[in-house]
């Protein structure tokens, strides 16, 4: 994507607009990958990684460093949005399989400032308006369920465990 297409307008979040205005939200580029994965890993280890078994931490690390995910990113089938403060990557969200929110992480110093919410809202708008998707699904970490519920997601099934990673399936309708 060209520079003009990389830039994304922030959704209407009036109470946080001023604070969010200093951040850039854009599509990730190839040269962003390593920095984004580093921020994701750091954020994971500072938050839910502390609660996971050794197996869960290992599974998560293997997922975010998998060559197939990187290759899918390069060809556009694993999309990533970034939030930046200057050149520092402070947030990242990824979608795969057209409508599955795969990863959403915000650097600990920037949490509770609307960065994660903005990344989700930008993806929702893109998926709905550009791809015609009608829902966004996520397998949320248990501590993140409340965050997703505030954004309009609903729990769709009981907690599940994948190789030591606990998740709760959730879904949000994408209505115009």
Describe the structure in brief.
The chain is of the alpha+beta class. It has a single domain (15-173), classed as Aminopeptidase.
In one word, what is the shape? globular
Report the CATH C-level class.
Alpha Beta
Please give the largest β-sheet: 8 strands, mixed
Round the Cα radius of gyration to an integer and report it.
Answer: 15 Å
Q: How would you describe the oligomerization state of the chains in this entry?
A: single chain
Fill in the CATH topology: Aminopeptidase
Strand content: 25-35%
How many domains would you count in the coordinates? 1
How many DSSP H or I helices? 7
Level-2 CATH architecture = 3-Layer(aba) Sandwich
CATH superfamily caption = Gcn5-related N-acetyltransferase (GNAT)
Order of helices and strands: HHEHHHEEEHEHEEE
Structural class computed from helices and strand pairing = alpha+beta
Cα distance spanning the termini: 25 Å
* Total beta-strand segments: 8
- Estimate percent helicity: 25-40%
Report on this structure.
By secondary structure, the chain is α+β, with helices and mostly antiparallel strands. It has one domain (15-173): Aminopeptidase, CATH 3.40.630.30. It is built from seven helices and eight strands. Strands 1, 2, 3, 4, 5, 6, 7 and 8 form an eight-stranded mixed β-sheet that branches. It is globular. The two termini are 25 Å apart.
């Amino acid at each position: 994507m060209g520079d003009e297409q990389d830039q994304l307008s922030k959704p209407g979040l009036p109470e946080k607009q001023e604070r969010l205005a200093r951040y850039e939200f854009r599509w990730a580029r190839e040269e962003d990958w390593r920095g984004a994965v580093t921020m994701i890993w750091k954020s994971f280890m500072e938050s839910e990684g502390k609660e996971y078994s050794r197996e869960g931490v290992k599974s998560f690390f293997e997922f975010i460093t998998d060559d197939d995910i990187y290759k899918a990113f390069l060809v556009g089938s694993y999309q990533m949005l970034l939030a930046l403060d200057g050149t520092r990557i402070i947030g990242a969200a990824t979608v795969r399989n057209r409508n599955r929110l795969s990863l959403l992480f915000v650097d600990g110093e920037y949490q509770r400032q609307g960065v994660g919410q903005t990344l989700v809202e930008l993806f929702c708008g893109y998926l709905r308006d550009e791809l015609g998707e009608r829902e966004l699904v996520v397998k949320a970490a248990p501590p993140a369920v409340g965050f997703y519920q505030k954004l309009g997601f609903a729990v769709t099934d009981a907690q599940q465990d994948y190789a030591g990673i606990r998740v709760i399936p959730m879904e949000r309708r994408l209505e115009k």
